[in-house]
Structure prediction request, 234 residues.
Amino acid sequence: MLKLEGVTAAYGQSPVLFGIDLEVADAEAVTLIGRNGVGKTTLLRTITGLHPVTGGGVRLNGAQVEKEAAFTRARSGLAYVPQGRGLFGHLTVEENLLMGLPALSGRATAKREIPELVYDLFPICRDMAGRRAGNLSGGQQQQVAIGRALVTQPRYLLLDEPTEGIQPSIVQEIEVALTRVRTELRVAVLLVEQYLDFAWSFADRYYVMQKGRVVETGTTADTPTHAVQRYLGV
Prediction:
């Protein structure tokens, strides 16, 4: 389980996160929603170790990791796809995928190669292996970015706005692939998402953030999207 207990974070002297409690069980899908600027991306970066925690704890599989470096957390099973995808545009698709392999260091049972399932989930990764990532469409880049995260063989996959700027047909393909990631690989998913139809179709539970705090949580099956739409409006 991934579990946050009273997590706080700041930028300099300015607090950004205030006592965040959140958990994601094995193979569960959880969505984090809220307006722009409420701290969602900061929370994901705090979980992965890219932004420091100023208080509270982050537990990964029962171990306290809030003081661990980002690469250590990656080797422990955390994978992160940032908003904007974070690909190396001058490198080929295959070279981008290979960048995920260092996260397998120290895992005795892990094969240091791109898993065949990545190509099965996202055929674009094989079909355009030799093409520069920067020359791909937004939807293609997102598939490569998720594929690179899966190369690390994670237990928890964090996604920041995975549907942003992507055409509906590709969004559907990504949802199908992520569903297989959960069911076949038993990977849990925590996603920040503004597209409620996608979030509610995919996720089991949701958290709402406002001004750096969690203000509501529940199950997507029991909560219609219109009941939380007010948290996204300007």
Observations:
- The chain has a mean pLDDT of 93.
- DSSP finds eight helices and ten strands in the chain.
- The CA atoms of residues 17 and 212 lie 4 Å apart.
- The longest helix spans residues 168-185.
